[in-house]
């Protein structure tokens, strides 16, 4: 049995580099325990825990078309729609439970949970 470890993506908005060129396609690999542990030890994360997402994504995104090496600075420069898309993709490919929203039916009053999907797919 072969496991898929690298996934293609197309950013909804695109990464706009410093020259004004828009890059949309890329690849993300499955995360390893080392990726997550290493990211929690990063000085930027120790200083600001919300930076964890940036560091992890910079480790698992292996390619953005036309960009030689992906760094945290590249991830910081993403539009928020693209960051949300990549966070959702990371959760899906690594089988992480998606975030849910508790909702109440306006007709019957029944409470239920709805998974949040930032990509707009399926």
Give a quick rundown of the structure.
The chain is built from five helices and five strands, in the order E-E-H-H-H-E-H-H-E-E. With 122 residues, it is an alpha+beta fold. Strand 4 and strand 5 (111-115) form a beta hairpin.
Catalogue the unreliable spans: none
Beta strand %: 25-35%
Please describe the biggest sheet, giving its number of strands, its sense, and whether it closes into a barrel: 3 strands, antiparallel
Helix content: 25-40%
Q: What's the β-strand tally?
A: 5
Number of helices: 5
Domain module tally: 1
H/E element sequence: EEHHHEHHEE
Category by helix and strand content: alpha+beta
Global geometry = globular
Roughly how many Å is the radius of gyration?
17 Å
What does the average pLDDT come to? 90
Spatial order of the strands forming the largest sheet: 1-2-3
The end-to-end distance, rounded to whole angstroms, is 26 Å
Structural write-up:
The chain is 34% helix and 27% strand. It is α+β, with helices and mostly antiparallel strands and 122 residues long. It has one domain (6-115). Strands 1-2-3 form a three-stranded antiparallel sheet. A two-stranded antiparallel ribbon has the order 4-5. The longest helix has 14 residues, at 80-93. The two termini are 26 Å apart. The mean pLDDT is 90.
